[in-house]
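Lecture 7 notes: from sequence to structure.

We start with a single chain of 278 residues. Read the sequence below before looking at the structure.
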Amino acid sequence: MLMLNVNLLFKNDRIEFPFLAYLIFLNKTLRILIFVSILITLSLYSSSNVYGQESVHNWENSEIFGINKEEAHSTAIPFATFEEAKEAEWKRSPYYKLLNGNWKFNWVPKPADRPENFYKIGYDISEWNEIPVPSNWQMNGYGIPIYVNVKFPFVIVDPPNIPHDNNPVGSYRRDFTIPDNWDDREIFIHFAGVKSAFYIWVNGEKVGYSQGSMTPAEFNLTSYLKKGKNVLAVEVYRWSDGSYIEDQDMWRLSGIYRAVFLFSTPKIHIRDFFIKTD
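Now the structure, written as tokens:
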């Protein structure tokens, strides 16, 4: 957000404005009009840069691949004992919680039709259907699978732009709770695969954005969580500017198609590791 720090002082029907000193020679009405126009311009500029208000959709912005997303790293699940770690069975770790299962789901054929406020806690989703996670929504009766080998899957090819009248959106909701033994720990959510781009909210607050459908995405949820029931909302777009790069000989399917899970770590922990040779 652009911040402007100026001292404005009226004296004897004159205006002292350090960086616009020439205004003192203009009549009072014109000075006021110019000053108001400057404020309006600055307000429009700053509001367009507030997180969550996109002047260009993230899913067709070639400069954005993620917002508030953890850096890529080797996937590692904490265990309580060395013996458990050697077995490497994630589901046996007390610091791992799988979120797979039936989620509430809404599908629309284009972004303009999506339920924009579905992430809010009070939003009524009682009439929504359920969909298994992980899965592709085309295999559950929503939209159609598309196969092409050498062409793009949409008619209008104008990278990084995506056709707004043909970009289905899936909205997902589910509740979850945090285990009691996760107090005073960092808590992350891991999406192993979502195609093609998605936003995530927790308890009505926007957490972040991700695209790159063949790689995992993680977000730190620690500051968004509360005791008891938490509400997770995910909005998935079938196409993004990444669809141009991911154009290969394959079936085009969409949705949360790989596992989703939570894991917790100590406040200080090994996040990633590497080896350098001599």
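The chain has two domains: 9-47, 60-265. Keep this in mind for problem set 3.
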